Amino acid sequence: MAQTTQTERTTSTSTVFTRLADRSYRHRWLALIAWVAVLVAVTVAAQVVGSDYRNDFALPGTDSQRALDMLRERAPAQAGATAQVVVQRADGLAARPTRDRIEAMLRDVRELPRVAEVRSPYEDPSAMSRDGTVAYATVVFDAPAEQVPGEDVRRIMDTAQAARGDGLRVELGGDPVRNAQESEGGAAEGVGMLAALVILVLLFGSLLAASLPIVIAVFAVGSAVGVVALASHLATIADFTAPLMLLVGLGVGIDYALLVFSRYRGELLAGADRAAATRTALDTAGRTVFFAGCTVIVALLGLIALGLGSLRGVAVAIAVTVLVTMIASLTLLPALLAVVGARVERGVRKRASRAIRREGDRWRAWSTLVQRRPWAALVLAVGALLALAWPTLDMRLGFADAGTDAPSATSRAAYDLLAEGFGAGFNGPLVVVVRGDTEAAATVQQALSTTAGVAATTPPLPSSADLSTIIVFPDAGPQDARTAELVDRLRSQTLPPLAAGSGATLLVGGSTAAVVDFADAVSGRLPIFVGLVVGLSALLLLLVFRSVLIPIKAALLNLLSVAAAMGAITLVFQDGRFGAQPGPIEAYVPVMIFAIAFGLSMDYEVFLLARMHEEWQRTRDAQLAIREGLATTGRIVTAAAAIMVLVFGSFLLDPGRMLQQFGLGLAVAVLLDALVIRCLIVPAVMRLLGTRAWWLPRWLDRSLPHVALEAGPADGPVPR
Fold first, then answer.
1. pLDDT digit string, tens, across residues 93-146
2. Residue 464 forms beta bridges with which residues?
3. Across-strand partners of 86?
4. What is the full DSSP assignment across 254-269?
5. For the residues of 617-678, what is the DSSP string, one character each?
6. DSSP summary character for residue 142
7. Could you read off the pLDDT of 243-288 as tens digits, one per residue?
8. Among 602, 588, 458, which Cα is nearest to 523's?
9. End-to-end CA, the chain
10. Which of 186, 229, 246, 362 is 20 to 30 A (C-alpha) from 223?
């Protein structure tokens, strides 16, 4: 009865969403042609122009950035990226034939593009291990690692490795090599879409109906990727943005289209004709999609508050993906329903006629069970989530280095050989920049060599009349927490007295120090970001549901699900569970997962609470509202969550560690949100709150603008 009433009411009113539905439905072919034209145009343009993705790891104000800027200004030859050509031979590298082969290879490398300098191990005794079996040559590039083209680095790799054989091993390491290593890529997108299609077919019993959300996702993601690829020529957008857009776009696109289509299907079963069902679907589920999409966009744009240039482009690109997906769900889907609606309706009615029980009865029974024992459900569920979230307290941010690469990668082999020949800290050297006279540099070098945690130092390397660098090798690996502690100790204890006594400027830089600075920057600004996103999301919920307690509950539960997802990432990737290479959590991952997962969890929150609110306004029965809200949304939320879990989880097949962490974190967050929070905690909390859940002080109600998720008579008559 509730469904029929809603259909009749929506049919007799006109809103922005019903007018949008009518126009898309009536002008179906125009809408389809417009979307096809947009997709083709941006795809062709992106193919012709290409992309210009590039990373921006600048951290103004930090020691590592100041050191890099000083080297670029006064000694540009030392500011370029470096790579190591690591050679190893069991019987030693000193024999003349071996030496001739290596030096000939290095001469060839020196002639290649983007190579500024090559330092032979035979010219520097410190570049040869004590037993003479491992040595390295340093290749200096003419630009930072992110600006060196991958094809140029691969030419260097091929040239160097052509010398191996006959007992001589040649491997290459360094950031440019890691960036340029060609991977075969994962089958993530294909696996995720295939799994989503299987679930949709099982849900709707029709391949045609199941394909509609997939089509929406493909159009939306394809258009967004093309637009962002073109925009990469105008703004700095990180090179890992496109895979993240696919990851989020596929999940969100299928999710939003599914929410709208499921309401359309429900209206057909309630007796509405196809046009009326489309209007009602957009005026109810469409509003929910619009609100949920805006919440995700707000959460993503909150990343700008972090002030990290490398994340701004990523945040805007993914926000554009969500925006295009939302628009496609509200314009392209009604047009598709108008074209294939008759076939879809026949399938829906045929499947409904074979149904043994009323749809939603199992969810009604489950809701009743939870409401009988609300405290038990609440305590057990919250306890489980807190236990999973506990490892988050020990999360260590950073960037994975070659030590976490696949054992078959040349960067990993070079890393292991250098650690074997020179010690673990050799793979994470610190660069101390000294701006002062030679006496000051010598004093600094002597003090550094006796500092706890330092394995060795090089003599000061003069760069100009008053600038020199000292390479400091920690006694621990670059991912070891002791190396980060050493950086902090040098900056806070060792160097300040030396700088005060000599009048020199002393800065700790290098890639390892930059990672420490980036992790500290993220950790320091994270509370501001979390507070901003949670506050804005809670305000939106307050406006929509006219309740004080519901936004508080939603914010706390969403934070809990995200924290549990972070705990799962920590267990797997930091602690090395389930066969993963142990290492730090990529510094980008927690903030990106928080923004995306917090926004997505609001999707289900709004979808579920909107139906509860609709029933509450109709009956003013709090328990019935909980039961009917879960009954009408439980099946769809579970299916949508299963699709997202499979799409996100499929990125565990990707060879990139960062995407694996994103995939696992988002999959766990959605799984916990849909199964634990929506099915257990929300009905339990709503039962305990009762009518107080919808309480809002009168003075606040009068002062807040009205934003409704359900259409009402006040919206006005339909123009004739």
1. 888 888 889 889 989 988 888 888 888 888 877 788 888 889 888 888 877 766
2. 467
3. 136, 171
4. HHHHHHHHHHHHHHHH
5. HHH--HHHHHHHHHHHHHHHHHHHHHHHHHHHHGGGGSS-HHHHHHHHHHHHHHHHIIIIII
6. S
7. 778 878 877 887 788 888 888 887 887 778 888 888 888 888 788 7
8. 588
9. 27
10. 186
Q: What's the average model confidence in pLDDT over 173-193?
A: 66
Q: Going by DSSP bridges, is the β-strand pair 169-173/82-88 parallel, antiparallel, or unpaired?
A: antiparallel
pLDDT of res. 454: 85
Query: What is d(CA 14, CA 614) in angstroms, rounded to the nearest whole number?
Result: 18
Bridge partners of 473, per DSSP, are: 456
pLDDT band at 391 (very low <50, low <70, confident <90, very high): very high
CA torsion 250-56-527-300 (nearest 10°) is -30
Q: Which amino acid is at 87?
A: V
Max Cα distance, the chain (Å): 95
CA distance 536 to 302: 9
For residue 452, how many other CB atoms are within 10 A of its CB? Answer: 11
- C-alpha torsion angle, residues 222, 226, 227, 231 (rounded to 10): 150
Q: What is the 3-state secondary structure (H, E, C) of 181-224?
A: CCCCCCCHHHHHHHHHHHHHHHHHCCHHHHHHHHHHHHHHHHHH
* Residue 693 CB coordination number (10 Å): 23
pLDDT tens digits for range 676-696: 888 888 888 888 888 887 788
- Please give the helix or strand (H or E) that residue 22 lies within, else none: helix 16-26
Question: Rounded to an integer, what distance in angstroms lies between the CA atom of residue 472 and that of residue 454?
Answer: 7
Please return the burial class of 159, using the count of CB atoms within 10 Å of its CB with bins 0-12, 13-18 and 19+: middle
CB of 178 closer than 8 Å to CB of 411? yes
> CA geometry: angle at 689 spanning 688 and 693, to 5°?
150
User: For 593-624, how does the pLDDT look when each residue is reduced to its tens digit (9 = 90+)?
Assistant: 888 887 777 777 777 777 787 777 788 787 88
Burial 557-578 (b: 16+ CB within 10 A, else e): bbbbbbbbbbbbbbbbbbeeee
CA dist 562 and 54 (Å) reads 29
Q: How many CB atoms lie within 10 A of CB 262?
A: 23
Residue with the two structure tokens 């691969």: 154
**Per-residue confidence band for 714, with pLDDT thresholds at 50, 70 and 90:** very low
Structural tokens at position 300 = 């993503």
Is residue 206 within 8 Å of 344, Cβ to Cβ? yes
